[in-house]
Amino acid sequence: MSAVVTAVERVRRAYARIAAADRPEVWIDLRPQAEAEAEPALVDARVAAGEHLPLAGTVCAVKGNIDVAGLPTTAGCPGYAYLPERDAPAVARLRAAGTVVLGTTNLDQFATGLVGTRSPYGAVRNALAPERIAGGSSSGSAVAVALGIADLALGTDTAGSGRVPAALNGIVGLKPAPGRVPTEGVVPACASVDCVSVFARTVDEAEAALRLLADPAPAAPPARRPGPWRIAVPAAARLGTLADGWAEAFTAAADRFAAAGADLRDLDLTPFDRVAAMLYEGAFVAERYTAVGEFVDALAEKGGDGLDPVVAGIIGAARDLPAHRLYADLAELDRLRALALAQLGDADALLLPTTTWHPTFAEVAADPVGGNARLGRFTNSANLLGLCAVAVPAGTVRGLPFGVMLVGRADTEARLCTLARLLTEPPVRLAVFG
Amino acid sequence: MSAVVTAVERVRRAYARIAAADRPEVWIDLRPQAEAEAEPALVDARVAAGEHLPLAGTVCAVKGNIDVAGLPTTAGCPGYAYLPERDAPAVARLRAAGTVVLGTTNLDQFATGLVGTRSPYGAVRNALAPERIAGGSSSGSAVAVALGIADLALGTDTAGSGRVPAALNGIVGLKPAPGRVPTEGVVPACASVDCVSVFARTVDEAEAALRLLADPAPAAPPARRPGPWRIAVPAAARLGTLADGWAEAFTAAADRFAAAGADLRDLDLTPFDRVAAMLYEGAFVAERYTAVGEFVDALAEKGGDGLDPVVAGIIGAARDLPAHRLYADLAELDRLRALALAQLGDADALLLPTTTWHPTFAEVAADPVGGNARLGRFTNSANLLGLCAVAVPAGTVRGLPFGVMLVGRADTEARLCTLARLLTEPPVRLAVFG
Q1: Whose CB has fewer CB within 10 Å in chain A, the N or C terminal residue?
Q2: Quick check: A327 and B293 CB within 8 A?
Q3: Residue B382: what pLDDT?
Q4: Strand order in the sheet with B388-397
């Protein structure tokens, strides 16, 4: 990410692109252009003075549930807004590297959703197919990158909010394992598993941003047994209902890894599926009530102005989940985590489609909760299992982006990015003998 | 623990002592003497053949919530009983070392209590003062050791059940950090923090037993900064209401450490107190409902035969605690754990009185819940904080045993035992100059 233009010029271009794109629903609070243009002059001066600022000449967007000093943090709910005095550490780390923040982006309210429609700031249209959803909850961040407005965007990921919108908009979504990037200054969804994630148009850019965002890695990433890359790939028949043509696209992505010399092996997805179902069907959803439930209840009592009814319904229903069930679920999660990690074995990554379909706005409106649940079938489990993941484009199907996801053990983010590049870069053709 | 008598002879003496002591309430299922005498002949034969069995010639008692093959596991509730096919790993490890199990011991039902009175098998009388409580929940195990019937006894410890009865009966209670001894085959109280603990009359015997019981320790225990032992000791005035003479006895114990050359330093007990209060006042008690709540509810509906009313009340009240409160409590516990460990700092141990008073049966009956809570003021926090502890006798006050507790970071059990010996063995007198 070297500065090909000055920071001032990059900001100017971003605002021109914002005007041309005409997607006002992407933003909750876009900084006035004059204000945003004042900042990069300083970046350019520092670079001119010889300072190394790896993100000089880039602009970024920040999901509206992450604190940006001087802009309201809304979490997609106007009544919840507060004005943070300082940047969240994730924002501060990117800014210290020279990027300029354009503003805060739209999201499914309280990061509760994978659709990008659950917001009083408007449903976010897909970057490439405006009659379809952008995916969420980091909807505005993903679209800002996909439209070429921002070079980078911060999202959050609890159930898949940093990956599903990457897949649906044809960009890269990198989600570290829980704990790798500080979540201070982020409105919690499920505080114990929330992650700050990053969107970019290339794996290289996403990885470089994560290196700036993350706390120092442990002394050594998990050891790997020598030999070719090993990728666990479930049989396409085991993936359940997918959009037309997606099973074939998934198989093609797996084939591309095989062609690059990777060993593919089958695995039993059952423990991953069970954990994914627990995220919303069990007691874990109560953590969303811990975070914002009392606020939501109080606002609902006053008429619910600005409250998304689907989100309010999900959070309200979490109020009465019993703690004894949560203990049972936590114990079951421990059991399933052991099974899931055993299935992963010594594989470097698990390859999955990032999501299962790409609905229109009408399809989501017809079944807001069920349609959302279908989107998270493959993403819901990663954070509960303590895993990291990168969602990358893997071609198009019927003119729409199709994406796959590489999922790996904690602290293997760099390894996943190396694997992801096998898909996104021109493949090295191996000589075949015999 | 070398065999001073044959194993057969040791078992014979144990049954003679059982008859002489006339404390039938100590046992839930005492093995028939003939059966118990058949087993040690094999132990003696193995020793005669040259095998090293570190517990040959010893007998032990097992708390009635731990599986002993062939004896019912009751957890203090006759209707809950099941007949385990195999020993719990903790029992199996002691047996493999040559000890003979005499039977299962009485306890506060479902290990819910620190009094030893909450059992349909009878209230357990103190070994030394029969009008007073034995303490619990490992009441029978502690009294069997204190009366000299058993050399060792297994207990469990969630809120202090492996330490309070040690203090009240003048013996040693060693409680490893959660996770050091497997809890398979143990009826859970609060599964996420339950520990198997050991009672003995000396620190050496307790430590030797723990070495047999524990999973292999991590490669290295936590490093310590060189220098004299460092013991954190709260000011006696900060300890709240204690039985008459106990503050002075506590100060005398601290003085003895100082006389042995240890550095004593003050600490702020507030985070420990807060965590202790959370164990029963917050949502953590819901884990007891997860373990046995449905059973208790069903039994209560059928008339509650054999159900202790105080225990049933505590577990039943845990049914409706909300999961969102548990998430809040878990986050608060993380916060308080960091504060508590900061207070501990580089101290090798925290010295505390093990408990606060030694009530009569009448005093407990007058306030069953409040009186119990007073007993756990110092013990309740250790397991939630992930700490280990050893409770040791520290003299007598008004003819009754007084005990103190050394509490330390996980994997410092051996270090705590070394410190405990400074109290229980004749002190090394240091020359004083000047």
Answers
A1: C
A2: no
A3: 98
A4: B27-30, B100-105, B59-63, B152-157, B195-200, B172-175, B388-397, B400-408, B349-353, B230-232, B263-265
CB atoms within 10 A of CB A431: 4
d(C-alpha B200, C-alpha A336), whole Å: 38
* Residue contact B293–A324, C-beta within 8 A: yes
Q: Are B149 and B61 in contact (CB under 8 A)?
A: yes
Q: How far apart are CA B188 and CA A383, in angstroms?
A: 28
Active site residue A141: no
Rounded to 10 deg, the angle between the A309-317 and A286-301 helix axes is 120
Q: What pLDDT shows up at residue A280?
A: 86
Residue A99: exposed, middle, or buried by beta-carbon count in 10 A (0-12, 13-18, 19+)?
A: buried
Provide the β-strand partners of residue A393. A403
Neighbours of A398 (CB within 10 A): 11
Q: What is the DSSP letter of B144?
A: H
Report the pLDDT value the prediction gives residue B39, as an integer from 0 to 100. 87
Interface confidence, given as ipTM, is 0.89
Interchain contact, A325 vs B323, CB within 8 Å: yes
Interface probe, candidates A183, A192, A326, A329, chain B, greatest B C-beta count within 10 A: A326
Which pLDDT band, with edges at 50, 70 and 90, does A426 fall under?
low
Rounded mean pLDDT of chain B?
95
- Looking at residue A1, what is its pLDDT? 46
Q: How far is CA A89 from CA A51, A321, B339, in A?
A: 21, 33, 22
Q: Please tell me the distance from the alpha carbon of residue A314 to that of residue A109, in angstroms, as a whole number.
A: 11
Q: Report the C-alpha gap between B312 and B5 in whole angstroms.
A: 45
User: What is the CA B402 to chain-centroid distance, rounded?
Assistant: 15
Give the global pTM.
0.92
- The size of chain A, in residues, is 434
B175 three-state secondary structure: strand
To the nearest whole number, what is the mean pLDDT of chain A?
95
Query: Environment class of residue B153 by beta-carbon count within 10 Å: exposed (0-12), middle (13-18) or buried (19+)?
Result: buried
- The list of chain B residues with pLDDT below 70 reads 1-4, 219, 426-434
Phi, psi of A32 (to 5 degrees): -60, 140
Partner residue opposite A327 with nearest CB, options B286, B319, B331: B286
Strands ordered across the beta sheet of A400-408: A27-30, A100-105, A59-63, A152-157, A195-200, A172-175, A388-397, A400-408, A349-353, A230-232, A263-265
Q: How far apart are CA B44 and CA A303, in angstroms?
A: 80
A161 among known catalytic residues: yes
| Distance, CA of B148 to CA of B14 (rounded, Å) | 8
Residue B316 has a pLDDT of 95
Query: Could you report the per-residue pLDDT of A77-86, keeping only the tens digit for each?
Result: 999 999 999 9
Rounded to an integer, the average pLDDT of A48-64 is 95
At A15 the pLDDT is: 97
Summarised one tens digit per residue, pLDDT across range A241-258 is 999 999 999 999 999 999
Angle between helices A368-375 and A309-317 (to 10 degrees): 80
Burial of residue A120 (number of CB atoms within 10 Å: 0-12, 13-18, 19+):
middle
Adjacent-strand bridge partners of A172: A200
